[in-house]
Amino acid sequence: MRALPKPPHGWNSVAWDLAIVTLGVLIALFAQQLVQNLNDRAAAEEARKNIRAELGVNIGRMQSADRRSACLTRRLEEIAAFLDQARKGRSLAGVKWIGRPPIWEMEDARWQAATSAGRSSLFGADEQAAIADVYALMSDYEVQNRIEQEAWAKLRGLAGLERLSEARDASLSDALQQARYSQWVLAIDSAQAQDAAKRLGIRATPVPPSLSPLCIPTDVPAAEALKRLGYEEPL
Q1: Cα–Cα distance measured from residue 227 to residue 122, given in angstroms and rounded to the nearest whole number
Q2: Global model pTM greater than 0.85
Q3: Of 39, 47, 200, nearest to 110 (Cα)?
Protein backbone atom coordinates (compact mmCIF):
# COMPACT_ATOMS: atom_id res chain seq x y z
CA MET A 1 0.00 0.00 0.00
CA ARG A 2 1.42 3.35 -1.06
CA ALA A 3 1.87 5.97 1.64
CA LEU A 4 0.01 9.27 1.33
CA PRO A 5 2.22 12.14 0.10
CA LYS A 6 3.64 14.29 2.85
CA PRO A 7 2.77 17.96 2.72
CA PRO A 8 5.70 20.26 1.90
CA HIS A 9 7.28 22.59 4.46
CA GLY A 10 7.54 26.40 4.62
CA TRP A 11 5.47 28.55 2.29
CA ASN A 12 4.52 25.47 0.37
CA SER A 13 3.04 24.11 3.58
CA VAL A 14 0.93 27.24 4.05
CA ALA A 15 -0.32 27.01 0.48
CA TRP A 16 -1.12 23.36 0.97
CA ASP A 17 -3.12 24.07 4.14
CA LEU A 18 -4.96 26.92 2.43
CA ALA A 19 -5.84 24.68 -0.47
CA ILE A 20 -7.19 22.02 1.88
CA VAL A 21 -9.30 24.58 3.75
CA THR A 22 -10.59 26.10 0.50
CA LEU A 23 -11.49 22.69 -0.84
CA GLY A 24 -13.34 21.89 2.38
CA VAL A 25 -15.28 25.15 2.20
CA LEU A 26 -16.20 24.54 -1.44
CA ILE A 27 -17.37 21.03 -0.67
CA ALA A 28 -19.48 22.34 2.24
CA LEU A 29 -21.00 25.07 0.07
CA PHE A 30 -21.73 22.60 -2.70
CA ALA A 31 -23.37 20.21 -0.23
CA GLN A 32 -25.41 23.08 1.25
CA GLN A 33 -26.54 24.23 -2.19
CA LEU A 34 -27.44 20.67 -3.12
CA VAL A 35 -29.58 20.31 -0.01
CA GLN A 36 -31.21 23.70 -0.69
CA ASN A 37 -31.99 22.71 -4.28
CA LEU A 38 -33.55 19.47 -3.11
CA ASN A 39 -35.62 21.31 -0.50
CA ASP A 40 -36.73 23.92 -3.06
CA ARG A 41 -37.70 21.21 -5.49
CA ALA A 42 -39.76 19.42 -2.84
CA ALA A 43 -41.40 22.69 -1.74
CA ALA A 44 -42.23 23.60 -5.34
CA GLU A 45 -43.74 20.19 -5.99
CA GLU A 46 -45.87 20.37 -2.84
CA ALA A 47 -47.08 23.87 -3.75
CA ARG A 48 -47.79 22.77 -7.32
CA LYS A 49 -49.83 19.80 -6.11
CA ASN A 50 -51.91 21.98 -3.78
CA ILE A 51 -52.49 24.65 -6.41
CA ARG A 52 -53.53 22.16 -9.07
CA ALA A 53 -55.99 20.58 -6.64
CA GLU A 54 -57.44 24.01 -5.86
CA LEU A 55 -57.78 24.86 -9.54
CA GLY A 56 -59.46 21.50 -10.11
CA VAL A 57 -62.12 22.36 -7.51
CA ASN A 58 -62.81 25.72 -9.18
CA ILE A 59 -63.03 24.23 -12.66
CA GLY A 60 -65.44 21.61 -11.37
CA ARG A 61 -67.68 24.36 -10.00
CA MET A 62 -67.59 26.22 -13.29
CA GLN A 63 -68.56 23.09 -15.17
CA SER A 64 -71.43 22.49 -12.76
CA ALA A 65 -72.72 26.01 -13.43
CA ASP A 66 -72.35 25.48 -17.18
CA ARG A 67 -74.50 22.36 -17.05
CA ARG A 68 -77.34 24.43 -15.59
CA SER A 69 -77.27 27.10 -18.28
CA ALA A 70 -80.32 25.72 -20.11
CA CYS A 71 -82.59 26.32 -17.09
CA LEU A 72 -81.06 29.77 -16.59
CA THR A 73 -81.71 30.82 -20.19
CA ARG A 74 -85.27 29.50 -20.06
CA ARG A 75 -85.99 31.34 -16.81
CA LEU A 76 -84.68 34.61 -18.26
CA GLU A 77 -87.09 34.19 -21.19
CA GLU A 78 -89.94 33.51 -18.77
CA ILE A 79 -89.07 36.61 -16.75
CA ALA A 80 -89.10 38.75 -19.90
CA ALA A 81 -92.57 37.37 -20.70
CA PHE A 82 -93.77 38.06 -17.14
CA LEU A 83 -92.62 41.67 -17.44
CA ASP A 84 -94.56 42.06 -20.67
CA GLN A 85 -97.68 40.70 -18.97
CA ALA A 86 -97.26 43.03 -16.00
CA ARG A 87 -96.87 46.03 -18.33
CA LYS A 88 -100.27 45.15 -19.79
CA GLY A 89 -101.78 45.33 -16.33
CA ARG A 90 -101.96 41.59 -15.69
CA SER A 91 -101.35 40.21 -12.22
CA LEU A 92 -98.49 37.79 -11.68
CA ALA A 93 -100.20 36.09 -8.74
CA GLY A 94 -99.69 32.75 -10.48
CA VAL A 95 -95.92 33.23 -10.42
CA LYS A 96 -94.88 31.72 -7.12
CA TRP A 97 -91.21 30.91 -7.69
CA ILE A 98 -88.31 32.54 -9.55
CA GLY A 99 -85.14 31.07 -8.04
CA ARG A 100 -81.57 32.08 -8.81
CA PRO A 101 -78.36 30.73 -10.38
CA PRO A 102 -75.86 28.93 -8.15
CA ILE A 103 -73.32 30.85 -6.09
CA TRP A 104 -69.82 29.51 -6.59
CA GLU A 105 -66.82 30.85 -4.70
CA MET A 106 -63.51 30.51 -6.50
CA GLU A 107 -60.90 29.28 -4.03
CA ASP A 108 -57.42 30.84 -4.08
CA ALA A 109 -56.12 30.28 -0.53
CA ARG A 110 -53.48 27.77 -1.64
CA TRP A 111 -52.24 30.04 -4.41
CA GLN A 112 -52.05 33.00 -2.05
CA ALA A 113 -50.22 30.90 0.55
CA ALA A 114 -47.70 29.67 -2.01
CA THR A 115 -47.13 33.21 -3.26
CA SER A 116 -46.71 34.66 0.24
CA ALA A 117 -44.22 31.93 1.13
CA GLY A 118 -42.26 32.50 -2.06
CA ARG A 119 -42.95 28.99 -3.28
CA SER A 120 -44.66 30.05 -6.49
CA SER A 121 -41.42 31.81 -7.46
CA LEU A 122 -39.82 28.36 -7.59
CA PHE A 123 -41.93 27.60 -10.68
CA GLY A 124 -40.71 28.44 -14.14
CA ALA A 125 -41.70 31.85 -15.49
CA ASP A 126 -44.11 30.37 -18.04
CA GLU A 127 -45.81 28.17 -15.45
CA GLN A 128 -46.16 31.08 -13.03
CA ALA A 129 -47.76 33.24 -15.71
CA ALA A 130 -50.11 30.48 -16.86
CA ILE A 131 -51.34 29.76 -13.33
CA ALA A 132 -51.75 33.46 -12.55
CA ASP A 133 -53.86 33.89 -15.71
CA VAL A 134 -56.23 31.10 -14.66
CA TYR A 135 -56.66 32.59 -11.19
CA ALA A 136 -57.30 36.03 -12.72
CA LEU A 137 -60.12 34.60 -14.83
CA MET A 138 -61.54 32.86 -11.77
CA SER A 139 -61.39 36.07 -9.76
CA ASP A 140 -63.34 37.90 -12.47
CA TYR A 141 -65.79 34.99 -12.56
CA GLU A 142 -66.46 35.30 -8.83
CA VAL A 143 -66.94 39.07 -9.03
CA GLN A 144 -69.38 38.71 -11.91
CA ASN A 145 -71.19 35.93 -10.07
CA ARG A 146 -71.89 38.29 -7.18
CA ILE A 147 -73.15 40.98 -9.56
CA GLU A 148 -75.41 38.36 -11.11
CA GLN A 149 -76.83 37.46 -7.68
CA GLU A 150 -77.71 41.11 -7.05
CA ALA A 151 -79.67 41.20 -10.30
CA TRP A 152 -81.55 38.02 -9.43
CA ALA A 153 -82.35 39.33 -5.96
CA LYS A 154 -84.41 42.02 -7.72
CA LEU A 155 -85.89 39.65 -10.28
CA ARG A 156 -87.30 37.46 -7.51
CA GLY A 157 -89.58 40.39 -6.74
CA LEU A 158 -91.68 39.36 -9.76
CA ALA A 159 -93.17 36.44 -7.83
CA GLY A 160 -96.79 37.28 -7.02
CA LEU A 161 -96.49 40.88 -8.29
CA GLU A 162 -99.96 42.45 -8.41
CA ARG A 163 -99.14 45.81 -10.00
CA LEU A 164 -96.11 47.12 -11.88
CA SER A 165 -95.22 50.76 -11.25
CA GLU A 166 -92.98 52.73 -13.61
CA ALA A 167 -90.15 52.73 -11.05
CA ARG A 168 -90.49 48.99 -10.47
CA ASP A 169 -90.60 48.38 -14.20
CA ALA A 170 -87.36 50.29 -14.70
CA SER A 171 -85.68 48.47 -11.82
CA LEU A 172 -86.73 45.01 -13.04
CA SER A 173 -85.80 45.83 -16.64
CA ASP A 174 -82.32 46.88 -15.55
CA ALA A 175 -81.99 43.73 -13.45
CA LEU A 176 -83.02 41.57 -16.38
CA GLN A 177 -80.44 43.18 -18.64
CA GLN A 178 -77.76 42.78 -15.96
CA ALA A 179 -78.66 39.12 -15.49
CA ARG A 180 -78.34 38.51 -19.22
CA TYR A 181 -75.03 40.33 -19.40
CA SER A 182 -73.67 38.47 -16.38
CA GLN A 183 -74.65 35.15 -17.95
CA TRP A 184 -72.68 36.10 -21.07
CA VAL A 185 -69.57 37.23 -19.18
CA LEU A 186 -69.60 34.20 -16.89
CA ALA A 187 -69.81 31.86 -19.88
CA ILE A 188 -66.77 33.55 -21.47
CA ASP A 189 -64.75 33.49 -18.23
CA SER A 190 -65.65 29.85 -17.70
CA ALA A 191 -64.65 28.79 -21.22
CA GLN A 192 -61.35 30.68 -21.10
CA ALA A 193 -60.47 29.41 -17.62
CA GLN A 194 -61.23 25.83 -18.59
CA ASP A 195 -59.13 26.10 -21.75
CA ALA A 196 -56.21 27.59 -19.79
CA ALA A 197 -56.49 24.92 -17.10
CA LYS A 198 -56.59 22.21 -19.74
CA ARG A 199 -53.31 23.45 -21.17
CA LEU A 200 -51.82 23.05 -17.69
CA GLY A 201 -53.18 19.53 -17.46
CA ILE A 202 -55.63 20.43 -14.67
CA ARG A 203 -58.38 17.90 -14.08
CA ALA A 204 -61.71 19.14 -12.76
CA THR A 205 -63.00 17.87 -9.43
CA PRO A 206 -66.60 16.90 -10.24
CA VAL A 207 -69.42 18.50 -8.27
CA PRO A 208 -72.22 16.05 -7.36
CA PRO A 209 -75.33 16.79 -9.44
CA SER A 210 -78.14 18.65 -7.70
CA LEU A 211 -81.38 20.39 -8.60
CA SER A 212 -81.00 23.99 -9.74
CA PRO A 213 -83.51 26.48 -8.27
CA LEU A 214 -84.03 27.75 -11.84
CA CYS A 215 -85.19 24.34 -13.04
CA ILE A 216 -88.20 24.41 -10.70
CA PRO A 217 -91.36 25.65 -12.52
CA THR A 218 -92.57 29.14 -11.63
CA ASP A 219 -96.02 27.91 -10.58
CA VAL A 220 -94.59 25.76 -7.78
CA PRO A 221 -95.25 27.30 -4.33
CA ALA A 222 -92.15 28.52 -2.54
CA ALA A 223 -92.55 26.04 0.32
CA GLU A 224 -92.68 23.14 -2.14
CA ALA A 225 -89.73 24.51 -4.12
CA LEU A 226 -87.63 24.73 -0.96
CA LYS A 227 -88.65 21.20 -0.05
CA ARG A 228 -87.45 19.95 -3.44
CA LEU A 229 -84.15 21.77 -3.06
CA GLY A 230 -83.56 20.45 0.42
CA TYR A 231 -82.05 23.69 1.68
CA GLU A 232 -83.04 27.27 2.40
CA GLU A 233 -83.20 29.81 -0.40
CA PRO A 234 -83.82 33.58 -0.35
CA LEU A 235 -87.35 34.41 -1.49
Answers
A1: 50
A2: no
A3: 47
